[in-house]
Amino acid sequence: MTDAASAWDAEYQTGRYVGEPPIEFVSDIVRTCVPGARGLYIGCGNGRNFVPLVDAGLDLVGLDISRAAIDALSVRVPGHRLVRGDLSALEPGESFDAVVGIQVFQHGTRSEVHAHLRRAQDRVAEGGLFCLRVNAVGSDFWLAHATSEEHEDGGFTVRYLEGPKQGLDIHFFSRNELATIFEGWDEALPLRVQSTPRSQGSGQWSQWEAIWRRT
How does 44-59 read in b/e, with b if 16+ C-beta sit within 10 Å? Predict the structure, then answer.
């Protein structure tokens, strides 16, 4: 099991996200997707956002590296296809009308998260949607960390020195960086930044949100 999977198992086992409402971006996804669309939710977790999307009529496959998350979600949505693992755990060539990734593609170095995004893009069917929420530059930090990568396009990576993500690389994307990754895709929901006050420490946490259509 990877360090990231172990870290998320620990988070879910101590009640992470239990009782928390879905983020507002979920409503945008529901409005943009065709009712009944077959989709893939990467990093579905224990269902904070997955369950409302399913309840709204999307036919989602849930994918997560955390055994604790998949076990918890299977109780909430019995009968749904839930897969433990990364994208390689899916059938080769399997594609979807929509791919959803909410705060999942920032885990790793720049090259790792870019490769993860590219593999996820390959799972979007022609004319399908990619619904993304991911860390944005401009976020404030309150846990000890070290910047491990910086790029001329403004994106950077930090390694946390304490807290639940201690020892893990977390990437923060710039607007230009995402524009390059999704070059040639149409914007169904234009790229925007959302800032949330941190529940611990001080400052705010910024995320990019957008929905792209594969042309």
Answer: bbbbbbbbbbbeeebb
Residue 1: per-residue pLDDT: 43
Tell me the whole-structure pTM to 2 decimals: 0.91
* Residue 85, amino acid: G
Average pLDDT over the chain, rounded to whole? 92
Residue entry with tokens 């996820």: 120
For the chain, list residues with pLDDT below 70: 1-2, 7-19, 200-201
Phi, psi of 31 (to 5 degrees): -70, -30
